Amino acid sequence: MRAATLALILFSLFPSPNLAGQVYGTLRDSGRPVGANIKVEIVCGSNTYSAVTDNYGSYKIFAKENGKCTFRVYYQNQAPQTTIDSYPDAAHYDFDLVLNGGRYELTRK
After folding, report:
1. Rounded distance between C-alpha atoms, residue 80 and residue 104, angstroms
2. 43 burial class (0-12, 13-18, 19+ CB within 10 angstroms)?
3. 17, 21, 15: which is closest to 89 by C-alpha?
4. Which residues pair with 91 in a beta bridge?
5. Domain spanning 21-108 has what CATH number?
6. What global pTM score does this model have?
7. How far apart are CA 79 and CA 9, in angstroms?
8. How far from 85 is each of 11, 57, 62, 77, 93, CA to CA, in Å?
9. 79 near 41, Cβ under 8 Å?
10. How many CB atoms neighbour CB 90 within 10 A?
11. CB atoms within 10 A of CB 105
């Protein structure tokens, strides 16, 4: 009984990061991965969550809020953005950066 009570207290004090909504995917430009250290952000309400891509253009961000959020990429001195949904479970978003009239746009693959 003591062990179960202690486990419940510890779980309450240290919630699992899996309760956050993981958003992950890849970024590509002209069919190629964008490469490493491209900053990506998710803005949900007044909170901003950021990460950088790895060598393959992959990213992974944990957003605590659920619902409509803004996904933004800082690429080639521009910051194209789009709306995404954040869920309690993982959500997969692959994007292509498409150059349109000198401006990059995010299109979902």
Report:
1. 6
2. middle
3. 21
4. 23
5. 2.60.40.10
6. 0.79
7. 43
8. 27, 21, 13, 26, 10
9. no
10. 13
11. 15
C-alpha–C-alpha distance, residues 58 and 94, integer Å? 9
d(CA 64, CA 39): 19
Condensed to tens digits (0 to 9), the pLDDT of residues 62-101 reads: 999 999 999 999 999 999 999 999 999 999 999 999 999 9
Antiparallel, parallel or unpaired: β 21-29 and 58-63: antiparallel
Distance of CA 77 to the CA centre of its chain: 20
104's torsion region: left (phi>0), alpha (psi -120 to 50) or beta?
beta
- 20-41 burial code (b ≥16 CB/10 A, e <16): bbbbebbbbbeeebbeeebebb
